[in-house]
Write a structure and sequence with these properties.
Strand content: 25-35%
Helix content: 25-40%
Number of domains: 1
Structural class: alpha+beta
Radius of gyration: 22 Å
Shape: elongated
Number of helices: 2
Order of helices and strands: HEEEEEEEEEEH
Largest sheet: 4 strands, mixed
């Protein structure tokens, strides 16, 4: 009896461990990505060594600086499989706008990008400041 219980526990544990890498690939679509504004420039990109490609379908996503609240946070590079072969990875973009930096987060080509509230507010304030100067 102990042998059959032990065998089922081992098989269940093995099945759970085997399913973990597949679960790690699942990403939930959390809605549109937001274009943000930052008062400080992103730091220089870090050097990363690519791990071995896990499959033919995997795409290397290099590391990038992500704007989280009011600071820059590094996101490590990784291999990912796109949900559809037609989707392409678009790297994060940082563009100087006056004294600030416009940040467009890295994303798959099928994800929606919208202007975040902080960017809209900043853009409207700077438009009115430019008009006042004239």
């Amino acid at each position: 009896m102990y042998r059959s219980v032990f065998k089922s526990v081992v098989l269940t544990a093995f099945a759970a461990l085997a399913a973990m890498p597949a679960a790690a690939q699942v990403r939930a679509d959390v809605g549109p990505l937001h274009i943000r504004i930052a008062t400080d420039a992103p730091p220089r990109a870090r050097y990363e060594r690519r791990a071995v490609r896990p499959s033919r379908d995997s795409v290397w996503i290099r590391g990038y600086w992500d704007r989280q609240d009011d600071r820059w946070a590094w996101v490590d590079g990784r291999w990912e499989r796109p949900s559809d072969r037609r989707h392409r990875w678009i790297n994060a973009r940082y563009q100087r706008e006056g004294r600030a930096w416009r940040y467009e987060p890295a994303h798959w080509s099928n994800q929606q990008m919208v202007e975040g509230e902080d960017y809209q507010r900043w853009r409207n304030e700077n438009r009115s400041n430019r008009r006042d100067r004239r």
